Amino acid sequence: MPEYVLAFLLAAGVVLMITPGVIVLAAKTGAMDVPSGRKVHKKPIPRIGGIGIYTAFLISVITVSFIADLDGEMLQEVTGLIVSGTLIVLIGIIDDYKNLPAKVKLLGQIFAAAVLVFGFDVRIDFISDPFGDYFYLDRFAAPAAMFWIVGLTNTVNLIDGLDGLAAGVATIASVTILLVALQQNVILVTVLTAALAGAAFGFLYYNFNPACIFMGDSGSMFLGFMLAGISIIGAVKSAATIALIVPILALGLPILDTAFAIIRRYRGGVPIFRPDKGHLHHRLLGLGFTQRQAVLLMYVISALLGLSAVALTEVSSQIAMMILIIVVCAIFYGARKLGILKMND
């Protein structure tokens, strides 16, 4: 059995087994998400599901790492992801219980990212374009990695607004990066993304509408953080991959939803960290979609973006550029039709 298949099955199995215990723990310790004006659920729901996702990923990666007999450099990268990922989960758990101020949470994310970047030397050394040109970042390698990691951590965190949405999008993004890593034979990335996909996919059993548990910030921040770190490792290890364009497309939905939220709030004259009801899932619900319909539609959009990302690695530079142009035009047309750039509250 290929290592990545084992990693997926092991992570999915573990999260399926331990999540009922997490639900009980949340109920006993008061980690409940109470309904409010911006939220669509009608009763308190446990919200520390990230503990199950993190534990499943951890067990899967450690087990397969021993079986696969990774070399020293790979083990250092895995250790870095585990150490920094543990920090981000701890920050998320505290937030799930205490509702940390946005600035405090951001500082925690920056610290966790710094541990990975400076402590384990996981950096964005270069970026490339569809024409195969490489641009080395030199002194900006570490700041770029910090920005990427903190940015993706928050994009996945912000899209976690409907039952099963963040877990499903993270699964699709993980599988996309996995497929590209398989094409490029980057074994470590296939194992890491398979474990992450398995943990997120298994969690969907309890998280899809109607949800028995939410992943909370402990889960959404962990998924975003891991996807960011893994994609940097993948870009560094495979010069044939279109560097970070593939994960940007794979995570296009949460990235764009976050970008549109920032633009919308800036244009509306409100703080960019102030929550609103202008996100894509809010717009879809406003159009009459049910929660399940809205989530499934967003899965389809994520899958199409993922297929575009995979296609970029298989076609000529001219076709790749055409794909990117078509995707960008379609996104902005859809955003304009849905009114995502306008304040709604």
In short:
Helix content is 71%, strand content 3%.
Rg on CA atoms, Å: 19 Å
Tell me the number of helical segments per DSSP (H or I, 4 or more residues long): 13
Alpha-beta content class: mainly alpha
Largest sheet: 2 strands, antiparallel
Distance between the termini: 52 Å
Please provide the count of β strands.
Answer: 4
- Mean of all residue-level pLDDT scores: 84
Describe this protein's structure.
This protein is mostly helical and 345 residues long. The chain has helices spanning 3-29, 50-68, 72-98, 102-119, 141-159, 165-184, 187-207, 216-237, 245-250, 252-267, 280-286, 291-312, 317-338; strands at residues 32-33, 45-46, 126-128, 134-136. A hairpin with a 5-residue loop joins strand 3 (126-128) and strand 4 (134-136). The longest helix has 27 residues, at 3-29. The chain starts with a helix and ends in a 7-residue tail after the last helix. The model has no long low-confidence stretch (mean pLDDT 84).
Please write out the topology.
Elements: H1 3-29, E1 32-33, E2 45-46, H2 50-68, H3 72-98, H4 102-119, E3 126-128, E4 134-136, H5 141-159, H6 165-184, H7 187-207, H8 216-237, H9 245-250, H10 252-267, H11 280-286, H12 291-312, H13 317-338
Helix pairs in contact: 1-2, 1-7, 2-3, 2-7, 2-8, 3-4, 3-8, 4-5, 5-8, 5-10, 6-7, 6-8, 6-12, 7-8, 12-13
